[in-house]
Structure formats: structure tokens, C-alpha cells
Design a protein that fits this description.
The protein is an alpha+beta fold. The chain has helices spanning 94-100, 114-127, 132-157, 163-176, 183-190, 194-205, 209-227, 233-239, 245-256, 260-266; strands at residues 2-4, 15-24, 28-30, 37-44, 47-51, 54-58, 63-66, 72-76, 83-90, 106-109. It has 2 domains: 2-157, Jelly Rolls (Sandwich), CATH 2.60.120.280; 163-266, Arc Repressor Mutant, subunit A. It is built from 10 helices and 10 strands. It is globular, with a radius of gyration of 19 Å. InterPro entries: AraC-bd, Homeodomain-like_sf, HTH-like, HTH_AraC, HTH_AraC-typ_CS, Tscrpt_reg_AraC-type_HTH.
């Protein structure tokens, strides 16, 4: 599944060039690099990536971000099937964000966080439009993507107990967001006190686990509104973990500044 875009007529801080996932990856050779920033991650199988004569293996839950115009090539390992997800983007803000990431020619991530790993598939519908309003929303989503890359690097480099806390919480929420989730349940998973786990999680994601859960549910709700236009609001509310539709509508309006019904009307 893939979508490619034309370069926008007006300057944007960030814009999407192409996005795809569940992609049967063919061999690619770019002696002059790609003209945009390009993120590539493995879903299944294994690929071999070479950047400026530096060879690396890209297995499941591993990814690499290329800076524009950096020579590279990649291909499936031993001719086997290699399925990838990818995102290419550009914009006036890209170079500043690259400095924020301390990006040289490339960044290789040997353990992609669950949230970063699922970003492309979960955001795909948000990018499946080229009107001006949608492109502004896409710019925001791309900024979130760059922040996720930054957080992923911090998770790898920090020395305190953030990986055994943040990663299990993120993973649990991605699988059980439709269910009732409490701080007490998350503490049983991390094996740490609620106070400590929330402090560490907030240091990494700038929000508490339950605030992250609410944000995750809202993003899922938005996707369901787009992909299931005939579903009743109550059904969508239940699908994302709200048993009270009025509370769901209130939270959605706080998050997106519009009600689910209004969002659906103007999407």
C-alpha cells in the first residue's frame, strides 16, 4: 500500500512526499541519494542497506533515516521476501529538525519503539489526501514523527529504568486501548510504583501514561471515523475504550476542537 504526492505549490514547514506499508520491497540503488528525507523500516524479513559504503542489516523492528542526497542502496537479504514501511518528506523545517535529531548522513535505529513502528500504518489515512487542509494536518503528523525518532534515540541512550517502563506501557496500550486501563494495571506490568513509573514515562513522552492512552484512543477514533463513515458514534466510542458516548464526544472535542459528527461532516 503506497501513496505518493506532488510537491506542494506553497512552502510548507513539512510535507509528505510518499508513504507506504506492507510494501514488498524491491532492490533500490540511488547513487545520488534521494531528494527528500527518507525513513525505511522492516516489517518482516531482512534487508541489506549500504550507505556510503557502510553496510548494515535491517531486520524486523529496525529502521534507518536517510538525509537527502546521500548515496545509498538496499535490497532483500539473500533474495528472500522483505516487507517494509517507508515515509519520505521535506519542507522548510526539515533541516532544523535534522539538527534536533543530530542527523549526519543517516540515523540507524536497531530497536524501533512500538509507537514509532506503528506510526506509518496508523497515520496512513491521514496522509491519503492532498487538499490544503489535509496537508497542514500532515505537517503536524510529520512533526510528531520526528519527535518519535528523537524519543526513540533517548530511550536507547538513557541509563535509568525507562526502557523496562515506557516500552511495556506503550505496547500494552497499543494492544488493549479498547479496554479499561488504570495506573494500577500498568504498575502490575512494569513492576514499579505508580509514582515512579509515571515520572519516568513523563520524562520520555512529556505526558502521563493515561494522557498517552487518551491521545492514542483519539487517534484511533479519528481513523475509524474516516474509514467507517456508516458506523454510529456509540460504536466508535466503544471501539476505542469509551463506554459512555458523551464522555467520548467531550474528549474528542477537547482533542480536535470539533465533535466526531462535525469532523465526519467536513472530512
Amino acid at each position: 500500500m503506497r501513496v505518493a504526492f506532488n510537491k506542494p505549490n506553497e512552502e510548507l514547514p513539512l510535507y509528505c512526499d510518499s508513504i507506504g506499508y506492507h510494501w514488498p520491497q524491491p532492490p533500490i540503488q540511488r547513487s545520488n541519494g534521494y531528494y527528500a528525507y527518507h525513513w525505511l523500516q522492516t516489517e518482516t524479513g531482512t534487508g541489506i542497506v549500504t550507505i556510503n559504503h557502510q553496510r548494515m542489516v535491517l531486520g524486523p523492528k529496525q529502521g534507518v533515516l536517510f538525509r537527502p542526497r546521500i548515496a545509498h542502496d538496499y535490497h532483500p537479504k539473500d533474495g528472500h521476501n522483505w516487507q517494509t514501511a517507508f515515509l519520505s518528506f521535506n519542507g522548510t523545517l526539515c533541516d532544523q529538525l535534522a539538527d534536533f535529531l543530530n542527523l549526519k548522513d543517516f540515523i540507524y535505529i536497531d530497536r524501533v519503539s512500538p509507537e514509532l513502528a506503528s506510526f506509518i500504518s496508523e497515520s496512513f489515512n491521514d496522509f491519503n489526501s492532498s487538499n490544503v487542509a489535509a496537508m497542514l494536518d500532515q505537517s503536524v503528523e510529520l512533526y510528531k514523527f520526528m519527535v518519535l525518532l528523537r524519543q526513540n534515540k533517548l530511550l536507547k541512550n538513557r541509563h535509568y529504568q525507562d526502557q523496562p517502563i515506557a516500552m511495556p506501557i506503550i505496547s500494552y496500550i497499543s494492544k488493549h486501548y479498547a479496554e479499561t486501563i488504570s495506573n494500577e494495571q500498568l504498575a502490575k506490568i512494569t513492576k514499579y510504583s505508580i509514582t515512579y513509573q509515571n515520572r519516568v514515562f513523563k520524562q520520555v513522552y512529556n505526558m502521563t501514561p493515561l494522557a498517552y492512552l487518551n491521545s492514542y484512543r483519539m487517534k484511533k477514533a479519528k481513523a475509524l471515523l474516516l474509514t467507517h463513515p456508516t458506523w454510529e458514534i456509540q460504536k466508535i466510542s466503544n471501539q476505542v475504550g469509551f463506554r459512555d458516548p458523551s464522555r467520548f464526544i467531550h474528549q474528542f472535542k477537547r482533542f480536535y476542537k470539533t465533535t466526531p459528527a462535525q469532523f465526519r461532516k467536513f472530512m
